[in-house]
Amino acid sequence: MIGSARAVHGRAAVLAATGHHPYARHVLGRDDEPRAWLRDGTTAWLLPAERGPAGGAFGAPGPAVDLFAALLAEGVVRAGQWLHLPRLDPADLAGRLPVVQHNDWDFLWATAPPPHQPGEERVVRLTRADLPALTALVDEAYPGSTSPPGDPRVVDWYGIRAGDRLVAAGADRSQGEIGFLAGLTVAPTERGRGLGAALTVGMARALFARYDHVALGVYTHNVGALRLYRRLGFTHSLARSSVRLH
User: Which helix H or strand E contains 110, and what residues bound it?
Assistant: First the structure.
């Protein structure tokens, strides 16, 4: 027992506790059976081991930190694990959770296909034959990508070519019930020409054929990207903090 928290189990229980929020519908795969705890209107969960060492919470940051501090003390979570929490200040973690990395980001989502963008018709689904060009593009343009080529979470890759050269690419990392765009990047020599908007819209339109919501994540400090995505219809947002335990 984690203090006064109520333990529940399974995807359906977590979705019910979060009001079927798009974020929960995204992070929990259709076959996931997470362990979860409910306290003070906040839901915390741990994904199965085969999904990787990650936990998450939805609700208020204070109870979320309290829940995971208790889980850490009981050995349920451990050093090296990532926790995806409601937005919080690093000071809120002092003396409660030992953290070696803290990233603030925003989960943005759209509920309808975006407006047409010039060049979106150039977006195509990539194949295995494109892997060398894709790897070279990401290495040059986005070496710190959280969704690099070879990431097992990626369902498909999309891209834009200029002649025989791949100049923009993005990953379809959809899971659960939400389409999800990740790792969008444009070659440095091609930036400022609208390719980022064209890629985002072309990919989103493809995913809206299968999902009722399409989402993406963006670091909070990337003000330019936030402005672009909101202009393209990703007007709903949830502020998040991801931390890696020491």
Answer: strand 99-110
